[in-house]
């Protein structure tokens, strides 16, 4: 539940049921658009873009978020009050500017009772924002790997990173003994991306279109 009407809060179904998010649309983000043209990237199979093609009302709300969050630093009156224990930042896009990153940081800081999982492929924008807006203790900084089957090395350049999130294909995961610790679990029950753990953790998800194939191969391997 959000008690402020300026920033749109998205409700989710499916895997993210019972977790809300603040997001912006990938179709307005230049980096997202570029990533979608990169062969082998997870953005080539953008789940968010497919959803937004058929949900005009949601898209309009996300566009309004994009315009607001990239325009200026939010005033105290514009910062939403989040009534939740766990919350996600960006589920349909990514940060497009340092200003947007700073706004997310201040939303997180204000709502200190809530654990925020911040998903991004643009850690450099957050790094720049951290100079004037230090990382809050309730911010779990998740860098999503750009490429399928290739773990991002962003943690080497950005020590603020808490989690590297990578998507794998079924055959690659089986062949390389990759532990899928995201899988088909619901986020609110799993919470691997929403809790602070000592040291760096790696969260691995199976490509949605290959989940059945993966568990079939895994079962065969264990026989």
Domains, number: 1
Query: What is the tally of beta strands?
Result: 6
What is the terminal separation in angstroms? 47 Å
Widest β-sheet, arrangement of strands = 1-2-3-4-5-6
Strand fraction equals 5-15%
The global form is globular
How many helices? 9
Largest sheet: 6 strands, parallel
Helix fraction bin:
25-40%
Enumerate the spans where pLDDT stays under 50 for 5 or more consecutive residues: none
Q: Helix/strand/pairing class, anyone?
A: alpha/beta
Task: Give the SSE order as H and E letters.
Answer: EHHHEHEHEHEHHEH
Our Rg estimate from Cα atoms comes to 17 Å
> How would you state the average pLDDT, rounded?
92
How does this model look, in words?
By secondary structure, the protein is α/β, with parallel strands linked by helices. The chain has one domain. Helix content is 34%, strand content 14%. α3 packs across α4 and α4 packs across α5. The radius of gyration is 17 Å and the shape is globular. It starts with 19 loop residues before the first strand and ends with a helix. The model has no long low-confidence stretch (mean pLDDT 92).
